[in-house]
Amino acid sequence: MQKSILIIGGTGFLGYHLAKKCLKKKWKVTSISTNKPKKIRYLSKVKYLLLDITKKELIKKKLKSHFDYIVNLGGYVNHKEKLKTYRSHYNGSKNLVDFFLNKQIISFVQIGSSVEYGDSKSPQNEKINFLSKNLKSTYGRAKLNATNYLLKRNKTHNFPGNVIRFYLVYGPKQDFNRFVPIIIKGCLKNNNFHCSSGIQKRDFLYIDDAIESILKCMQSKNIKGEIFNIGSGKPKKIKKIIHLINNKIKLGKPLFGKIKMRKDEIKNLYPNISKAKQKINWRPKIKLDEGIIKTINYYKKYFKNN
């Protein structure tokens, strides 16, 4: 039987790459989002539906097909609009879990966030139980409440849901409001660009490894009600990443220290990934150097053609 997957947020960076991988597996792929896909992330064999997941009645009306797998990558990206952010990331997730509660699905993967750990010390592990009310961001509270609701439904209804908490995922076709594309663009355009001091440590994961973690999580038998940290497990200073990109491109000039670090900025943010290695047999394969080169090569072609 041909497998079917529903990707909420299938028009985004992660959603596009997940959809592309599933199409290679000959799966039926349906995407729901509030906007049509950008030209660079359009896949002709994907069924695209426009749907606001905060509206329960629309979910019931539009989702008539059976799905084996559901991956929730949805949610409002402009976190300055706090109400929209909370509703899309929490209410939307809750609505989806409730809708699929008795639909005999194989697996539901909720994409959480490292911000659910608050200011907990790195390397962060899944046993850290941070209270939602203590999180500073609306986005963080929404994500943690969504996680807790899914885990609650796992206990009460044996709901086959799991949560993946990504750290910094990068790769081709990512929007220019993310760290790696911003630096690549600055270098390729041969600009002088402002940076922080770059002493912060962050964890960077190439997109192919991120997608593989979702597939492993979905298809691992008897895995329910679990949280998995997904990252490289090898934190790097931001300054090192900027130098790496700058040295590969040999253009542009980063001006360190021109952007002040926020007072509440976490200096070191990276995960312990041993649980994912043990329980779903996942581990990152693409080394930082290789991933950065692949990403640079994509953006070189992008700027040449645009």
Write a brief structural summary.
The protein has 306 residues and is an alpha/beta fold. Helix content is 38%, strand content 17%. The chain starts with a strand and ends with a helix.
User: Major sheet: size, sense and barrel closure?
Assistant: 7 strands, parallel
Round the mean pLDDT to the nearest integer and report it.
96
Radius of gyration: 19 Å
Instruction: List SSEs in N-to-C order.
Output: EHEEHEHEHEEHEEEHEEHEEHH
For the record, the CATH class of the largest domain is Alpha Beta
Keywords:
seven-stranded parallel β-sheet; 2 domains; 306 residues; globular; alpha/beta; single chain; 9 helices; three-stranded mixed β-sheet; Rossmann fold; UDP-galactose 4-epimerase, domain 1
Please characterize this protein's 3D structure.
Helix content is 38%, strand content 17%. The protein has 306 residues and is α/β, with parallel strands linked by helices. The protein folds into 2 domains: 4-168 and 207-230, Rossmann fold; 170-203 and 234-266 and 286-305, UDP-galactose 4-epimerase, domain 1 (Alpha-Beta Complex), CATH 3.90.25.10. The strands form 4 sheets. A 7-stranded parallel β-sheet has the order 3-2-1-4-5-6-11, sandwiched between helices. It has a 3-stranded mixed β-sheet with strand order 12-9-14. Strands 7-10 form a two-stranded parallel sheet. Helix 1 (13-24) crosses helix 6 (207-219) and helix 5 (179-188) packs parallel to helix 7 (238-249). The longest helix is centred in the middle third of the chain and has 20 residues, at 138-157. The chain starts with a strand and ends with a helix.
